[in-house]
Automatic annotation (TrEMBL):
Organism of derivation: Kitasatospora cinereorecta
Family: Belongs to the acetyltransferase Eis family.
SUPFAM superfamilies in the cross-refs: Acyl-CoA N-acyltransferases (Nat), SCP-like
PANTHER family in the cross-refs: N-ACETYLTRANSFERASE EIS
Gene3D superfamilies given in the database record: 3.40.630.30, SCP2 sterol-binding domain
Superkingdom to which the source organism belongs: Bacteria
Matches recorded under InterPro entries: Acetyltransf_17 (IPR041380), Acetyltransferase_Eis (IPR051554), Acyl_CoA_acyltransferase (IPR016181), Eis_dom (IPR025559), GNAT_dom (IPR000182), NAcTrfase_Eis (IPR022902), SCP2_sterol-bd_dom_sf (IPR036527)
Listed name of the protein: GNAT family N-acetyltransferase
Stretches assigned to the N-acetyltransferase domain: 21-174
NCBIfam families on file: PRK01346.1-4 (NF002367)
Active site: Y143 (proton donor), F434 (proton acceptor)
HAMAP family assigned to the protein according to its UniProt record, in alphabetical order: Eis (MF_01812)
Keywords per UniProt: Acyltransferase, Transferase
Subunit structure: Homohexamer; trimer of dimers.
C-alpha cells in the first residue's frame, strides 16, 4: 500500500473556522467506511469489501480518519501506521513508525486534514519509542514539510537475453545446492523465515507483516487489485537450508510463431553471492524468455557485470526516490548504525516540530560505533531534518545536497566530512512498498 492519493497539494494548512471536520482513530466496526474512503482516495472503484483483509492488521489507535459532520459524518480522509523495523548500516534493526494508506478526498484538500493526522501520528510514534518514521511518497512536494526526506532509491535493469549472451559460465555457485519451485502455500511457510534472515543483511530493508505474505501469495486479495499466481523458486544449500528466493511472472508475448516473452522479477532475496548467481542463472535459462526485467533491485547490484556482454543491460527508465525517512530521536538513531571511518562533525539542524532541532556533534570511532550529542561548538554543516533523513542511511551525499543548495557548509569541507562519516560501501535499498 502506498501513500498520498491525488487531491492534495503542499498548501495543506488547517482552517480553524471549520468545526465540522473531526480527525480521530476509528473503531474496528468503522473499517467498512474507512475502506470505501481509501478506495475513493486512491481513485479505485469500490468493487468489493476489503474489511476482512484490513481487520487482520487492525490496531486500535493506528487507523485514523477524518469525518465531515456537515455531510452526515462521511469519511473523507484516511491514515494508517504500524510498528516496523528498519535495517541500518551495521545490521541493527531500528524501531520505526511505518506510515501508509494516506488519502484525502479531492473535495477536502487544503483544509489541514493531512497535517492533523500526520502530526498526531508522529507525536504518538515518538512517545512509543520509534526512532524514525518511514513512508513511500507518491507526490514529492508533500512530505518534506513534515520532516521526511528521500532515503532509498528504486532502481532496475532490462536485459536483452540474446544480446547480453546470458550469464557468464565462470560465476561461482554453491556446491551441492539445488533449486526447487514452491507452491503459494510453501512460499507462506518458508518465505518469512528467509526474509527475516535476509533483511538484516540489507540496510534499508524493513519487516514484512504476516498479511504481506498472504496478499502476495493469493491467500487474501483486496478488491480492485488483481492477483495472478506466478513462479517462485528457492535455492537450498547442500544441507537443505534455503539460502535464496526468486519470484517472477512471465509476460507471454509471441511474434507470430516465435516466442518473445519477458520475465519480470518481482522478488529477489539471496543470503550470499553464489546463491544470487544460481538464481540469476535460473532466470536467464527459462525457455521462450527474450528479456529479463528486474525493475527494483539494489543500486549496487552487479547484475550487468554478471553478463557475457554488460551492454545488453539497460537501466530501467524509472530510477526514482522510494522510501522516505523522518528522524524522531537523533541520538538514538545515530547510535544504532555503524560508521566506516572515525571522525567528528557538528551539524546545525532545523526541525519545525523541534524533535531534531539543535546543534549535534556526531562522533565516530575506529571500531565503527558512533554517538550524537547536543553541543555548543560551532557547526560544520547546516541542514533541515528532511535532509538529515536523506543522509542517515548513507545513500544520499552531503556534497550533492550542498551543490543543490539543500544544505549549507558553515566550514569549508563540511559536506565532504559528513560524507566520509555517513556514506556506506553498499547503498541502502528497500524492495517493499507498504
Amino acid at each position: 500500500m502506498g501513500n498520498d492519493a491525488p487531491g492534495r497539494t503542499g498548501n495543506d494548512r488547517p482552517d480553524r473556522s471549520d468545526q465540522q471536520l473531526e480527525v480521530r482513530a476509528i473503531t474496528e466496526e468503522e473499517l467498512p467506511v474507512w475502506d470505501r474512503a481509501i478506495a475513493r482516495g486512491f481513485l479505485r472503484p469500490h468493487v468489493g469489501d476489503g474489511t476482512e483483509v484490513r481487520r487482520l492488521s487492525f490496531q486500535p489507535g493506528r487507523y485514523l480518519a477524518a469525518f465531515d459532520h456537515s455531510d452526515g459524518g462521511r469519511c473523507v480522509a484516511t491514515f494508517r501506521s504500524y510498528d516496523s523495523e528498519l535495517t541500518v548500516p551495521g545490521g541493527a534493526a531500528l524501531p520505526v513508525d511505518a506510515i501508509t494508506a494516506v488519502t484525502v478526498n479531492s473535495t477536502h484538500r487544503r483544509r489541514g486534514l493531512l497535517s492533523r493526522m500526520m502530526c498526531r501520528d508522529l507525536a504518538a510514534a515518538r512517545e512509543r519509542g520509534s526512532l524514525a518514521a518511514i513512508l513511500v511518497a507518491a507526490e514529492y512536494n508533500i512530505y518534506g514539510r513534515f520532516g521526511f526526506g528521500p532515503a532509498t532509491r528504486g532502481h532496475g535493469w532490462r536485459v536483452d537475453v540474446l544480446r547480453s549472451g546470458g550469464l557468464r559460465a565462470d560465476l561461482p555457485v554453491p556446491t551441492g545446492g539445488r533449486i526447487d519451485f514452491l507452491t503459494p502455500e510453501e512460499v507462506r511457510k518458508f518465505g518469512p523465515e528467509l526474509h527475516e534472515r535476509w533483511r538484516l543483511t540489507q540496510p534499508g530493508a524493513i519487516t514484512r507483516p504476516a498479511v504481506w505474505w498472504k496478499l502476495q501469495t493469493g491467500e487474501l486479495t483486496l478488491p480492485g487489485l488483481d492477483w495472478k499466481e506466478g513462479f517462485t523458486a528457492v535455492h537450498r544449500d547442500a544441507q537443505g537450508t534455503i539460502t535464496g528466493l526468486v519470484r517472477y511472472s512471465i509476460e507471454d508475448i509471441w511474434d507470430g510463431a516465435y516466442p518473445n516473452c519477458t520475465l519480470h522479477v518481482q522478488d529477489f532475496l539471496a543470503l550470499d553471492r553464489p546463491t544470487a548467481n544460481a538464481l540469476w542463472k535460473l532466470a536467464f535459462s527459462v525457455d521462450w524468455v527474450k528479456q529479463v526485467c528486474a525493475l527494483n533491485i539494489g543500486i549496487d547490484d552487479p547484475l550487468p557485470l554478471l553478463l557475457n556482454d554488460p551492454r545488453g543491460a539497460k537501466p530501467h527508465e524509472d530510477n526514482f526516490d522510494f522510501m522516505w525517512l523522518r528522524l524522531l530521536d537523533v541520538p538514538g538513531a545515530f547510535a544504532a548504525r555503524t560508521y566506516a571511518a572515525p571522525g567528528r562533525i557538528v551539524l546545525q539542524v532545523t526541525d519545525p516540530e523541534g524533535w531534531a532541532e539543535g546543534r549535534w556533534a556526531l562522533e565516530t570511532a575506529a571500531d565503527g560505533t558512533g554517538s550524537c550529542r547536543p553541543t555548543e561548538e560551532p557547526a560544520d554543516l547546516a541542514l533541515g531534518v528532511s535532509e538529515l533523513g536523506s543522509l542517515y542511511l548513507g545513500t544520499e551525499s552531503a556534497v550533492r545536497l550542498a551543490a543543490a543548495a539543500r544544505v549549507t557548509e558553515l566550514r569549508p569541507g563540511g559536506a565532504a566530512k559528513a560524507d566520509l562519516l555517513l556514506r556506506t560501501p553498499t547503498q541502502a535499498w528497500n524492495p517493499d512498498s507498504f
